[in-house]
TrEMBL record:
One of its GO terms (molecular function) is transaminase activity. Residues 21-89 form the HTH gntR-type domain. It holds the Pfam family GntR. In the C-terminal section; belongs to the class-I pyridoxal-phosphate-dependent aminotransferase family. Signal peptide: none annotated. It comes from the Bacteria. Residues 495-514 are annotated as: Disordered. This is Transcriptional regulator, GntR family with aminotransferase domain. PANTHER family: HTH-TYPE TRANSCRIPTIONAL REGULATORY PROTEIN GABR (PTHR46577:SF1). InterPro entries: Aminotransferase_I/II_large, HTH_trans_reg/aminotransferase, PyrdxlP-dep_Trfase, PyrdxlP-dep_Trfase_major, Tscrpt_reg_HTH_GntR, WH-like_DNA-bd_sf, WH_DNA-bd_sf. Keywords: Aminotransferase, DNA-binding, Pyridoxal phosphate, Transcription, Transcription regulation, Transferase.
Length: 514
């Protein structure tokens, strides 16, 4: 394709040096937006890092970091002695299936009104929630700490090898190279017992859940969900006409006794035992055994989401449910979105041996795997030891950032927020005073350039004090004090008319033992 030039100055870059969001993040977000929207068209030559840094008044290192990040994600390409260009094919088109996409014609409501309502309720909200990388977003890792140059160095020869024939085909279940590495990694880090044949390479949690429902769910089935818990599971249940049964959690995880009392014959149980989402508890061994015994007696299936399992800051992780399951009732899944990059769209699903052929055939029939080049790059990244080294580095960084943010919150607003440190993951929980509307506070914070998540987003039926999930992974320690001041303003702007009492205490649990 003929190369064009953007000119020296890129138009429309939305950068604010006074904002709390680092300029590197702002530049990355703005460039990616304009590329995705087509403002920067395929094949356009980008300004050199020197030129752009001069005209934007920022360091060349900052610009180079944004360029490297976009190259590693496939939005930009480099040609020796020619420069940097917008990629001809963007990741959105190359990655084939980052989720199972459903058509939404204008007359969808005429096809089936209740189905239309389910799509309208779920999909736009998800897109809006993940639209920007802002401080305090609990779902975004420190993307600028990722070794982009190393990733590019690994990917370059892989692309060269794939390019000559241009038709290299990846099996529906994913490349054997990556499946072998995932099997090895899960065995060593999680105690998961699986062969590479049991590993399916997918795009993420939603696709894992969708595949399981497509293969196993029947109309009228029911499924347990943690309450509070991941809201996406009930949406998937709903799409497949599976009834949602909210089950309370306590300090030992999902209260299995209560779940059996509410719905003993449920077909599915979705759990996050390594680190309960969002409260951060680890499911006790006793509860794990209770859950497995119920699944065996009921011929039910356990959906084990390894949520934030890599980032544990103390002690040894408990064995996965899958490692305790000799009967093959557990489906185990996770993603690389927080350990590598969210935009890669890579995850894994470990299926019991007897279901391997069923799921391979299902994948082959309905979708295509993520980009083969991305899979092979990830496999080499893991095989070389760089993946685990990166996790160790980030675990240290995130622990430091968690401690720093907690200290700033305690110092800056002890009257407005009770912060609770968790022993794993990328967020802490801040409990608001009684009477506050946490969703309203979150909306006001977003208006001010922050993206904490309201605890109420995760609640099904249980009553919890108002609170915020405050991500610490994507904000540098030196920016925390001024960013917390902005958060305080958001909270003060949402003060109930009657005033407020002292901060709510984090919930205590009287029921159930571990």
């Amino acid at each position: 394709m003929a190369r064009k030039t953007s000119g020296a100055l890129l138009p429309g870059l939305d950068l604010d040096p006074s904002a709390d969001t680092p300029l590197a993040t702002q530049l990355y977000d703005s460039l990616r937006y304009h590329i995705s929207e087509g403002t920067l068209a395929a094949g356009v030559r980008m300004p050199s890092t020197r030129t752009l840094s001069t005209e934007l008044g920022m360091s060349r290192t900052t610009v180079a970091g944004a360029y490297d990040q976009l190259k590693s994600e496939g939005y930009l390409t480099s040609e020796e002695k020619s420069g940097t260009f917008v990629a001809d094919l963007l990741p959105e088109k190359l990655a084939w299936s980052t989720q199972l996409h459903y058509a939404r014609p204008d007359d969808l409501r005429q096809l089936e009104p209740d189905l239309a309502a389910r799509f309208d309720d779920n999909l736009p909200k998800q897109r809006e929630r993940t639209s920007r990388t802002l401080p305090f977003n609990p779902g975004i890792p420190a993307v600028f700490e990722f070794p982009s140059q190393t990733w590019i160095r690994i990917m370059r020869p892989i692309l060269s090898q794939l390019a000559p024939n241009g038709i290299a085909r990846c099996p529906a279940e994913g490349s054997i190279e990556l499946r072998e590495e995932v099997s090895r990694y899960l065995s060593g880090s999680r105690g998961v017992t699986c062969s590479p044949e049991q590993v399916l390479i997918i795009s993420g949690t939603r696709q894992a859940l969708t595949l399981i429902m497509m293969a196993l769910a029947n109309q009228g089935d029911t499924g347990w969900v943690e309450d509070p818990g991941y809201p996406g599971i009930s949406r998937v249940y709903d799409l497949f006409r599976v009834g949602t049964v909210p089950v309370p959690v306590d300090a030992h995880g999902l209260v299995v006794e209560e779940a059996i009392e509410r719905a003993p014959h449920s077909k599915f149980a979705y759990v996050t035992p390594a680190r309960q989402a969002p409260l951060g508890h680890t499911m006790s061994i006793r509860r794990r055994i209770e859950l497995l015994n119920w699944a065996y007696a009921s011929e039910a299936f356990i959906l084990e989401d390894d949520y934030d399992g890599e980032y544990r800051f103390g002690g040894h992780p408990a064995p996965s449910l899958q490692s305790l399951d000799p009967e093959g009732r557990v489906f185990y899944f996770g993603t690389f979105s927080k350990t590598v990059l969210p935009s890669l769209g890579l995850g894994y699903l470990v299926v019991p041996t007897r279901y391997v052929d069923v799921f391979r055939n299902l994948l082959d029939a309905i979708t295509r795997p993520p980009s083969l080049a991305t899979q092979l790059t990830m496999a080499e990244f893991m095989a070389s030891g760089l993946f685990e080294a990166h996790i160790r580095k980030m675990r240290t960084l995130y622990l430091s950032r968690q401690n720093a943010l907690s200290a700033v919150l305690r110092k800056s607003m002890p009257d407005l927020l009770e912060s609770k440190i968790l022993n794993a993951g990328l967020h802490l929980i801040g409990y608001l005073p009684k009477g506050y509307d946490d969703a309203k506070v979150a909306r006001r914070a977003k208006d001010l350039g922050l993206l904490p998540r309201p605890l109420s987003d995760y609640v099904h039926k249980e009553r919890l004090p108002p609170g915020l999930l405050i991500g610490f992974s994507n904000i540098k320690e030196e920016a925390m004090a001024r960013t917390v001041r902005v958060l305080r303003r958001a909270i003060e702007d949402c003060q109930p008319e009657t005033g407020h009492a002292p901060a709510s205490r984090s919930p205590t649990y009287a029921r159930g033992g571990g």
